[in-house]
Amino acid sequence: MTRYIVQRLVESLVVLLIMSFVIYALIGLMPGDPIDLMISGNPKLTPEDAARLRELYGLDRPIGERYLEWLSAALTGDFGYSRLHARPVLEVLLPRLGNTVLLMGASFLLALALALPAGLIAAVRPRGAVDSAINLFAFAGISVPPFWLAILLIILFAVTLGWLPAGGMPPAGATPAEQAAYLVLPLATLTLATAGGIIRFVRAATIEALRQDYVRTAWAKGLSERQVVLRHVVRNAMIPVATILALNFGTLFSGALITETMFGYLGMGKMIYDAILGNDFNLALVGLLLATLTTLLANLAADLCYLWLDPRITYR
Amino acid sequence: MTARPTGGAGRPEFELAAAAATPLAPPRSLSAILWHRFLEHRLALLSLFVLVALAMLALAAPLFESALGLDAEAVDLFALKQPPSAAHPLGTDELGRDLLLRLLYGGRVSLLVGITAALCAAVIGTAVGLTAGYLGGTADALLMRVADGVIALPLLPLLIVLAAVDLTKLGLPESLATSSEVSFYRIVVLIALVGWTTVARLVRGATLSMKTREFVRAAEALGAGHARIVLVHILPNVVSPIIVATTLSVGNVILLESVLSFLGLGIQPPLPSWGNMLTNAQELIWDAPALAVYPGMLIFITVIAFNFLGDGLQDTLDPRA
Asked: What's the pTM?
């Protein structure tokens, strides 16, 4: 067991290392380099100056060499400076990370609170009116472009009704109620976009569990529907659901990126997007790697979840 | 209400069994049975109708253009953000272009990206799945590890990086690298590169169970080569999951394209797509909300229709799922 976890952690680290090189190389292929940016900020620089600067900053050296240099600095905790924010990368990153954890965590819990009962109710009476309604809602959730959902919510609640701010972060010194108001629309967008998929997983897993022999036995024993569903079906249906949820962490993060960008919410997703578009190489690199690392750990968590929930399964 | 352990009655497979038991029922071909089963999925049927209608409208865009006597790309700075009128049935956009024509031409691009990329992904996925499932062993382990790796990555941020890569640094001439056409191919390639995993896993699973069947053994005994066994005996039997997964993925691809184009990293203007028509929508919310509503509505309708269609096909082709 411990050996399995260690093995998986090592594998994740290897994937992370490979990804760090891939992303480093890709970022080198993005338009412009730091010297281009200096030139555009200072038209007096001649091409000779630019060449000298490239040499000074080591940009004329092969990519492998530059990557190793970045890596050795990164391993000592030095991730360089953010160009857009003119501060060390970690100083920019950490508060953003907190905001994203808040947004993603809250909307994940909300989506679960919505989707678990909905999926269960739909599965217990398949093809009934309630199932059809829930199914329609779930399909709408997985089919709506999240950025458009955000636009609709802004049109309705910010422009037409004027109840909520259209985006941004609360001003300094805002009361908790005001702070919460800024969170409502991003939270609603991400929750609605996430819940549909979870409902479909829960419904499918519950229908599958309802077909098992032990459920038939439970019915034959004369248990009530409530006892059969809550005691025998739910626990078994949750095994695949928990795994799929952990595996879908990347999707949730993608949703968070769009939501944060739409509402000007200062989280990791918007930070990565702005860093890529703003040629902030150091920040983009670290942000992407952190997103990759978290997704890999979520996948590991999915496997461990499986193990913990289902004692029939053992890993070497 | 009395609870039943299984919701059996009214399910297609039970009705089929009943039909087969009736002595007077005429024999029906497999395709007739499947078609009959599909017809029972009213939502899927409606979706198919909607999709065909949308595709025909998009294909007929030049006809609308000449009927209205307009040019889809003509900018009219004296008629910005006009409300609907006889000349412009849905009004004009922020550059005075006819909104209806832009939506129709945008639909061509969005549907074409969705279908092309989903098909490319399906081809890659089928090839990988057949190879992994048939060969087994190291090849299988390796290919499935790659698939797991792709699934495990945070897709959207990586796609943003890939879409932002400057093609001139890869040796493409400047004029080509920034053209609308290249943005189309680029997005198809990018999505196909990350989208093949679902089909690959399904095909691998189906291939694993097929290759131990008697008819494959028989083909081996008759001296069929590996290529013949895979292509003639296994592939036709794993087609159902491919069809279902591909239909479902068209919807996902259209969503992904719309997100990337919306963020300014997908289809590049002046080529319209439903996604890039929304790029400026956020600033227009206040004075022209219709411009922000229509393209998104079409994306939503198209994606949900593909999802319903895929779901219906799944029930039709694999009633147990």
From this structure: 0.83
Structure tokens, A81: 């400076």
The tokens for A129 are 């009116």
* Count of other CB atoms within 10 angstroms of residue B111: 22
For residue B210, give the amino acid letter.
Answer: M
Cβ separation A272–B160 shorter than 8 A: yes
Confidence band for B121, pLDDT divided at 50, 70 and 90: very high
The owner of tokens 């081809």 is B123
A17 touches chain B (CB under 8 A): no
Helix (H) or strand (E) segment spanning residue A131: helix A129-143
Q: Tell how many helices (H) and how many strands (E) occur in chain B.
A: 15, 0
Q: How many CB atoms lie within 10 A of CB A269?
A: 28
Contact (Cβ atoms closer than 8 angstroms) between residue A187 and residue A125 = no
User: pLDDT tens digits, residue range A82-117?
Assistant: 777 778 888 888 888 888 998 999 999 999 999 999
Residue keyed to tokens 């979840």 = A305
Q: Does A26 touch chain B (CB under 8 A)?
A: yes
Give chain A positions within 8 Å (CB) of B156.
253-254, 257-258
Q: Quick check: B152 contacting A, CB < 8 Å?
A: yes
Q: How many CA atoms lie within 13 A of B211 on its CB side?
A: 20
Closest to B280 in 3D by CA, of B28, B146, B38, B99: B99
Q: Residue B185 corresponds to which tokens in the numbers above?
A: 């191919």
Q: Do A30 and B161 touch (CB under 8 A)?
A: yes
Q: How far apart are CA B165 and CA A109, in angstroms?
A: 36
**Which of B177, B195, B180 is closest to A30 using CA atoms?**
B177
